[in-house]
Design a protein that fits this description.
Layout: E1 2-6, E2 13-17, H1 23-27, E3 33-38, H2 39-45, E4 58-61, H3 70-82, E5 90-95, H4 97-109, E6 115-120, H5 123-129, E7 134-139, E8 142-149, E9 154-157, H6 167-182, H7 186-201, H8 205-223, H9 240-249, H10 256-273, H11 279-293, H12 305-313, E10 323-328, E11 334-340, H13 342-358
Parallel strand pairs: 2-9, 3-4, 3-5, 5-6, 6-9
Antiparallel strand pairs: 1-2, 7-8, 10-11
Helix pairs in contact: 3-4, 5-6, 5-8, 6-7, 6-8, 6-10, 7-8, 7-11, 9-10, 9-12, 10-11, 10-13
The structure holds nicotinamide-adenine-dinucleotide and zinc ion.
């Protein structure tokens, strides 16, 4: 088992990466423990991995984005209080990013903070969201409007969980893995290019564990000194400025990480047009990394320029007149601009549409 130590202003914590599920046994020794488990994960593993769990100590939570809200947090409070939850209890939650957000918010607010162990079971949660201290809930139609900064006390992850993920969810996580490898510099980016066939074939757990570990290390390097997301951490939004807009125009039919891949293709088109990325690197990234991992493609109407423009203008971090875009440049350095106008968006979007039509 390898360990990544994360320094946080709230509390330091550790990510334990393991090729086996052995860590689950040790949880049974924790006093005042309570499990919250994604209902799909529960169905898949209740008769095997979780057969030993006392059902009195488990809340099985049906998972949908529409339930990532305060009502579901109240369900968690109710289940905990029904078992006379105390300040010194430990919540152990097992699931993807939705379970992480719901249980993290619940853990941060109950008694102003209880012990929380998180076991990420999706690729997205393992390689990206589990570190970063953020918890977010949707409110009415506003996505991730409510939240807190609250890291788990411990994170335990085993890539074997991802074996049972649907392709849609696996390739969504892959979008974040790719983003983080590209942001980690040329050596890591090239390593990804050679490992991508194994990662997309989903048949090499050792390559996957290594890709997860490297993704977390890169994320950590951008979070250091900016835990509360006021500067450098913002570069982690590479692929997200345009990607969030595609999620919105597709009404979330394009999974998050897949929208991020589309966003990275778009950003590279702009970087190439601005002379920040050579044609060689552009093609290499396009054909060796981005297009092979893009399994859910947006339709022409989901890439309507006016609607994309309107969605990008809603970016909460936008301060000036122009649109914000984070780009990868020739030297594998990241750069952020805030001056993208409608004409530039239109022509890059046109090129994106023809790229996707040809691919
Ligand atoms: N807090 C953060 O920092 C942060 C960062 C990124 C994303 N998020 C949030 O995370 C959510 C997306 O997370 P996600 O992609 O992990 O999705 P998810 O939690 O919705 O899980 C995706 C699907 O996979 C199922 N699942 C989970 N583990 C499984 C397993 N081992 N085998 C089979 N099926 C399994 C779930 O039931 C669900 O149907 C979004 O709500 C997003 O806003 C939060
Ligand atoms: Zn993301």
């Amino acid at each position: 088992m390898s360990v990544i130590r994360v320094h946080s202003a709230i509390r330091d914590y550790e990510v334990h990466l393991s090729e086996s599920f052995d860590f689950l046994d040790a949880f049974e020794k924790i006093p005042n423990r309570f499990y919250v488990i994604d209902s799909n994960v529960w169905k898949l593993y209740r008769d095997s991995l979780f057969a030993y769990l006392n059902p009195q100590l488990v809340l099985v939570l049906p998972i949908e984005e529409e339930r990532k809200n305060l009502s579901t947090v109240m369900e968690v409070y109710d289940a905990l209080m029904a078992r006379s939850a105390k300040r010194n209890m430990t919540m152990i939650s097992i699931g993807g990013g939705i379970v992480q957000d719901i249980t993290g918010f619940s853990a941060s607010t109950l008694y102003r903070g209880i012990n929380w162990i998180f076991v990420p079971s999706t690729l997205l949660a393992q390689a990206d969201s589990c570190i970063g201290s953020k918890t977010s809930l949707n409110y009415k139609n506003y996505k991730n409007l409510i939240g807190s900064f609250f890291p788990p006390n411990q994170i335990y992850l085993c890539p074997k969980f991802t074996k049972t993920l649907k392709d849609k969810d696996y390739f969504s996580g892959m979008g974040e893995v790719i983003k983080l490898h590209l942001m980690g510099g040329e050596v890591l980016a090239r390593e990804l290019m050679s490992n991508l066939p194994a990662l997309t074939a989903r048949d090499n757990p050792t390559a996957l564990l290594s890709a997860i570990e490297k993704s977390l290390a890169v994320k950590l390097s951008y979070m250091q000194d900016d835990e509360f997301d006021t500067g450098k951490r913002n570069l982690l939004n590479f692929g997200h400025c345009f990607g969030h807009a595609v999620e919105s125009t597709s009404e979330f039919a394009i999974p998050h990480g897949q929208a991020v891949i589309v966003g990275m293709i778009f950003a590279n088109i702009v970087a190439k047009a601005r002379g920040l990325m050579s044609l060689d690197l552009f093609h290499e990234l396009q054909f060796k990394v981005l297009l092979p991992a893009l399994t859910t493609r947006p339709t022409q109407s989901q890439l309507n320029t006016e609607q994309i423009m309107a969605a990008m203008q809603m970016d909460k971090k936008r301060t000036g007149e122009g649109l914000v875009l984070i780009m990868l440049t020739e030297g594998f350095e990241m750069c952020k601009v805030e001056d993208m106008g409608f004409a530039e968006l239109t022509s890059a979007n046109q090129e994106l549409l023809s790229t996707l039509a040809k691919a």
